[in-house]
């Protein structure tokens, strides 16, 4: 259980001085630790990278005088900040701002990395989303119900790990700042993971992530947008077709996405997935191919095909519930590795995400 003080104290949510915030923080942390000595305490969950506010806060916690104890420093078990994208509505379609979010993460990790004492301190991106207002509605937020939200999440989460590697910091995790909106129309356009109990496609990306365990593997793609380009301009020319892979004792998982900042139609990607250097015990495996696209793991498209009912009948609701679950693209199949290698081929539509899970079978 992680404890921190306030929310986004570097903007108008906090009306005091920086020194007064540090004083509040020191007393709060001291009180929590007296009540629960093992509590994880940190912060400051600033809006954006935090800039000077973040630097001054970290300086105080590491080297300043604690207002509550009079001793040097304030416990800092994790450091947190927020990172948001910036979608727009351009030429009749949504254009995402993934570069904005990733640049903020790059800046935030850079600030933390500038303190040698924090090289191994866990970093939590306390709010990590395509934009900053879950309750707002508008044309530029039209990504929320469909698969664009899913592919954006896959592409951006993988790059967070790449940026952490760039700075040599300990990136522990990120949270979405989504809400539940009661008594609202179905698929009303809020940033949420479900609507009236029906799961949205984006929730299935998190379900995919939950199936990935063990060590992160190197994954290279000739269809990937380079990190430097993504930081400077986003995905504005060719699409980003890339992968994230993990391996534990018995399971190899590979997530592949086909993302573009512009929500316009485009050709499917012909993916050839080459897996090399597999452990000798992966002679054969059970392959499950999960998919999020127009026809899989997508209650929103199912709802539209029904005629967008706002009072679905019981059988329609049951169908929507089922459509909101993470679905297989094809039935599970047994695959065989040839000297530690296997090649898989499939098509991946624009804004779709695949997860291939290979469970080792006994030889």
Q: Within the largest sheet, what's the order of strands?
A: 10-11-12-17-14-15
**Count of separate DSSP helical elements:** 8
Determine the structural class based on helices, strands and strand pairing.
alpha/beta
Helix share bin: 25-40%
How far apart the termini lie comes to 43 Å
Return Rg in Å.
Answer: 22 Å
Q: Beta-strand percentage?
A: 25-35%
List SSEs in N-to-C order: EHEHEEEHEHEEEHEHEEEEHHEEE
Q: What can be said about the biggest beta sheet?
A: 6 strands, antiparallel
Number of strands: 17
Low-confidence parts lasting 5 or more residues at pLDDT below 50? none
Coarse shape: globular
Nearest-integer average pLDDT = 96
Question: What is the fold's blueprint, element by element?
Answer:
Elements: E1 2-4, H1 18-35, E2 40-46, H2 51-63, E3 78-84, E4 88-90, E5 93-95, H3 98-113, E6 122-129, H4 147-167, E7 170-174, E8 194-195, E9 198-199, H5 201-210, E10 215-217, H6 227-233, E11 240-247, E12 251-259, E13 269-275, E14 284-292, H7 299-305, H8 314-323, E15 327-336, E16 342-348, E17 353-360
Parallel strand pairs: 1-2, 2-3, 3-6, 6-7
Antiparallel strand pairs: 4-5, 8-9, 10-11, 11-12, 12-17, 13-16, 14-15, 14-17
Helix pairs in contact: 2-3, 3-4, 3-6, 4-5, 7-8
């Amino acid at each position: 259980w992680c404890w921190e003080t306030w929310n986004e104290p570097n903007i108008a949510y906090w009306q005091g001085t920086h020194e007064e915030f540090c004083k509040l923080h020191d007393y709060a942390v001291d009180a929590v630790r007296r009540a629960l000595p093992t509590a994880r305490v940190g912060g400051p969950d600033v809006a954006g990278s935090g800039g000077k506010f973040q630097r001054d806060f970290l300086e105080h916690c590491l080297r300043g005088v604690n207002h509550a104890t009079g001793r040097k420093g304030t416990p800092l078990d994790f450091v947190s900040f927020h990172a948001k994208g910036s979608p727009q509505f351009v030429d009749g379609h949504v254009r995402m701002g993934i570069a904005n979010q990733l640049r903020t993460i790059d800046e935030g990790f850079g600030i933390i990395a500038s303190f040698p004492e924090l090289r191994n301190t866990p970093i939590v991106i306390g709010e990590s989303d395509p934009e900053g207002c879950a309750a707002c509605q508008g044309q530029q937020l039209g990504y929320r119900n469909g698969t664009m939200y899913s592919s954006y999440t896959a592409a951006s989460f993988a790059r967070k790990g790449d940026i952490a590697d760039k700075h040599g910091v300990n990136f522990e995790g990120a949270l979405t700042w989504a809400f539940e909106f009661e008594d609202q129309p179905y698929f009303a356009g809020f940033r949420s993971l479900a609507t009236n109990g029906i799961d949205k496609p984006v929730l299935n990306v998190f379900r995919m992530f939950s199936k990935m365990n063990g060590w992160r593997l190197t994954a290279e793609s000739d269809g990937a947008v380079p990190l430097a380009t993504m930081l400077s301009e986003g995905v504005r020319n060719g699409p980003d077709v890339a992968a994230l892979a993990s391996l534990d004792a018995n399971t190899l998982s590979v997530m592949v996405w086909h993302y573009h900042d512009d929500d316009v139609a485009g050709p499917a990607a012909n993916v050839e997935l080459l897996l090399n250097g597999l452990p000798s015990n992966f002679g054969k495996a059970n392959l499950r191919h999960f998919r999020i696209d127009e026809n899989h793991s997508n209650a929103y498209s199912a709802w539209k095909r029904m005629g967008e009912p706002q009072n679905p009948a019981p059988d329609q609701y049951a169908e929507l519930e089922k459509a909101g679950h993470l679905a297989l693209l094809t039935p599970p199949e047994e695959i065989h590795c040839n000297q530690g290698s296997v090649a898989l081929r499939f098509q991946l539509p624009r804004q779709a995400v695949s997860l291939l899970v290979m469970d080792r079978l006994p030889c």
